[in-house]
Design goal:
Bound molecules: acetoacetyl-coenzyme A
Strand content: 5-15%
Radius of gyration: 17 Å
Shape: globular
CATH class: Alpha Beta
Order of helices and strands: EHEHEHEHHEHHEHHHE
Structural class: alpha/beta
CATH architecture: 3-Layer(aba) Sandwich
CATH topology: Rossmann fold
């Protein structure tokens, strides 16, 4: 039986590419989204991948959503915690709401996504937890105290889960994308993107979502079983850990 993969934020941006790549590898994929019904419907029409709507920042919603996925598709073997938001502002202008929204979605959202699937993975002695972190969790970023904190936190989560899951056949790894050509990056003021960001990428270009999706497909596979607690950086040589 094909393994089941859950991708949060799986209908747009990097998540969309991940959902499609995992489907192409033969997984039964479920993709979640938070708000854009129109885009989710178009995604399902194009790919045949089922979508589920819930807010990853809410534990009860996540748990209920995951139970629904498991009832409809099967126990989740691979979980890709990808959903994330930005609320960029220089620190002196960052509001407590901008801080909290990003922490709740990007960091607590990972807890809320992985915690409900973890007991099943432990019982079945197999699991792949893949968290989409960011180059900006590794190096920090002007205007992203909130976002960088969450993405650095993701790395702490996978390193700890790796140790807890290893003997139960579960791996936990992170992928740190650099600047990828998605709506999130295109929302950066064009002047800032062209003058401050692209010149810092030795590859001289933004990455493609598919370049991240291929890393995830590898981490999801049986072949990656001894890679645990790692971070794959895919950033066009912009930053080395
Ligand atoms: N480094 C140094 N200085 C910077 C800077 C940077 N990266 N970005 C902006 N500045 C400077 C500007 O040059 C300007 O300086 P002056 O006042 O001397 O002209 C000043 O900061 C702008 O200050 P403002 O108070 O006007 O800032 P603002 O309220 O307009 O907001 C910002 C600035 C929101 C941080 C904006 O610059 C921005 O969006 N920057 C991009 C942040 C970023 O990289 N976000 C990543 C989004 S993509 C993503 O998150 C995906 C991923 O994982 C990679």
């Amino acid at each position: 039986m094909a393994r089941v993969a859950l991708v949060t934020g799986g209908t747009r941006g990097i998540g969309e590419a991940i959902s499609k790549a995992l489907k192409a590898e033969g997984y039964n994929v479920a993709a979640t989204y938070a708000g854009n019904d129109e885009k989710a419907a178009a995604f399902t029409k194009e790919t045949g991948i089922k979508t589920y709507k819930w807010n990853v920042a809410d534990y009860a919603e996540s748990k209920a959503g995951i139970e629904k996925v498991e009832a409809e598709i099967g126990p989740i073997d691979i979980v890709v915690a990808n959903a994330g938001i930005t609320r960029d502002a220089p620190f002196h202008k960052m509001s407590p709401d901008q801080w909290k929204e990003v922490i709740d979605t990007n960091l607590t959202g990972v807890f809320n996504t992985v915690h409900p699937v973890w007991p099943g993975m432990r019982e079945r002695k197999f699991g792949r937890v893949i968290v989409i972190s960011s180059i900006n969790g590794q190096k920090g970023q002007f205007g992203q105290v909130n976002y960088a904190a969450t993405k650095a936190g993701d790395l702490g989560i996978v390193k700890s889960l790796a140790q807890e899951g290893a003997r139960a056949g579960i791996t936990a790894n992170a992928v740190c994308p650099g600047y990828i050509g998605t709506e999130m990056v295109r929302a950066i003021p064009e002047e800032v993107l062209n003058s401050k960001i692209i010149p810092q990428i030795p590859a001289g270009r933004l990455g493609e979502p598919e370049e991240i999706a291929r890393c995830v497909a590898f981490l999801a596979s049986d072949d990656s079983g001894f890679i645990n607690g790692s971070t794959i950086s895919a950033n066009g040589a912009q930053f080395f850990v």
